[in-house]
Amino acid sequence: MDKTSETSQSTSLFQTDFSIQEFSDRRGKVFDIIGKEALAILQSGRPPGYLESFRQSNELYYFCGVEIPNSYLLLDGRSRKTILYLPGHDPQRERNEGACLNSDDAELARKLTGVDEVKNLAALKRDLASATSIYASHQNTVQSALPDPFRRSTREAHFIDRIKALCPNAQVRDLSPIISSLRVVKSPAEIRIMRRAGELTALAITEAIRCTSPGVMEYQLAAVADYIFLVNGARGGAYPAIIGGGVNAWYGHYNRNDCELRDGDLVLIDYAPDYKYYTSDIGRMCPVNGKYAAWQRELYGFMVEYHKVLLKLIRPGVMASQIMDEAASKMKPVVEKTKFSKPCYEKAARQTLEFRGHMSHSVGMAVHDGGNYPAKPLVPGTVFAVDPQMWVPEEKLYIRVEDTLVVTQDGIENFTQTAPLELDDVEATMKEGSLADVGARHASP
User: Fold this and answer.
1) 279 and 230: one domain?
2) End-to-end CA gap in the chain
3) Which of its termini does the chain have fewer beta carbons within 10 Å around, N or C?
């Protein structure tokens, strides 16, 4: 095989977004935390079913970039060595799906990933046997509020049970908080990917806004966004699309998306791509008929102004709580000067300034990424969603606007800023030609 062919094969087998050194640095931070006597074990994502695509678990991908099902990564704190366990060569699978890394290609896999050793999956049981302290991810081990007696436990819970059975004398600890803490601050390589994810998010939401009109189905706006994601290299959506028309917006994570948009309603659009294992977050509300009614301008306009104030105040070295206090102080005169059309609207605006969840969650490999970033002063590289929210329970109204940003040395970079925010800009966007003319094209079966 010539050098060109070898390089082409290697890039098709393994990611090219992160360097070996970056993965090594991430693993080194885990070694520093778990100490010299413990092991950390990460498992791959759920094996795909027949003719299904595989997506690696965020946790395993974050530490080695391997996208192979039934793979495991062992971080041995006793030797500070990393061992990657892969299935053996499967000629039938390779014939059907193409080449993939396997334990028979140990030297190539080691070269691509930078791990110390590559072994066949069968060796994992033996290598775990002597462990006295093991860290494994407990994420998603919490049972549903509505447990199903016929359903097996989560993959994570089952994995931990297997570890305990294989290593009865070992103490099994939760790796999830460690991983979450490491993922709060993004590297330059991660920020480059998230910048593109934010661009695709804004592009998709803008196109969905253009396609909004009475008679369109909620799922059709999601389909428009999916097209933008896929044609630009994303896997699709990173989470179920939230397209809530009218009262459906009241449910902040509504995702049935099976209702027709009605003249006179607002529609909440919140959707972002799964782009190279990273995502974004956004929220825009547009008038279904293309023109904000007076009450819609009153409420959504207030939230947009509050959102803009928050964005201007975010900078490194301060706590999220301080920023919200400063924003509330700046917005109180606005509330006092505004002649709200209803007492319940004024009440909702005042309560908005008291709510403490407007800088709500980290964003990264998951839309609600782990890590408690508000617990410390903000540092450059921290990525999170700013999503001020208002509730008017008397009329079952929920108003939200949202962007994803990264803290920089002197302020922020807004990854999703190209989606129209100002109300006049939204109305102007709705008059533009759309990618898909879906307005009257929904036909009942």
Assistant:
1) yes
2) 56
3) C
pLDDT at 441: 44
Examine residue 26 and state whether it is found in any structural domain, yes or no: yes
- Cβ atoms of 369 and 180 within 8 Å: the answer is yes
| Residue 211 belongs to some domain of the structure | yes
pTM across the whole model: 0.93
Q: Cβ–Cβ contacts within 10 Å for residue 116, how many?
A: 16
Domain span at 274: 188-430
Same domain, 253 and 308: yes
Closest CA to 271 of 210, 212, 219, 193: 219
Tokens coding 163:
């570890």
Could you tell me which of 126, 87, 102 has the C-alpha nearest to residue 14?
102
Range 96-105 contact pairs with CB under 8 angstroms and sequence separation of 24 or more: 98/12, 99/9, 99/12, 99/13, 100/13, 100/68, 101/13, 101/14, 101/66, 101/68, 102/68
298 token code pair:
């009153």
Task: Answer for the pair 159, 371: CB distance below 8 angstroms, yes or no.
Answer: no
- C-alpha distances (whole Å) from 228 to each of 134, 202, 274, 418 are 43, 10, 12, 15
Please check whether residue 435 lies inside any domain of the structure.
no
Strands 81-86 and 284-287: unpaired
At 221 the pLDDT is 97
Give Rg (Cα) of the chain: 24
Cα(428)–Cα(420) distance, integer angstroms: 9
Number of other residues whose CB lies within 10 A of the CB of residue 93: 13
What average pLDDT values come out for the chain (445 residues) when binned by 10 residues? 45 86 98 97 91 92 96 97 96 87 94 97 94 89 57 82 92 96 97 98 98 97 97 97 98 96 98 98 98 98 98 97 97 96 98 93 94 94 97 98 98 98 98 71 42
Which two tokens mark 304? 């947009």
Do 232 and 354 fall within a single domain? yes
Domain-located, residue 440: no
Structure-block tokens of residue 239: 């989470």
Long-range contacts formed by 321-325: CB under 8 A, 24+ apart? 321/356, 321/374, 323/359, 324/356, 324/358, 324/359
pLDDT reported for residue 86? 97
The string of DSSP letters for 3-61 reads: HHHHHHHHHHHS--SS-HHHHHHHHHHHHHHH-SS-EEEEE-PPPP-TTPPP---HHHH
Do 329 and 380 belong to one domain?
yes
CA 379 to chain centre: 20
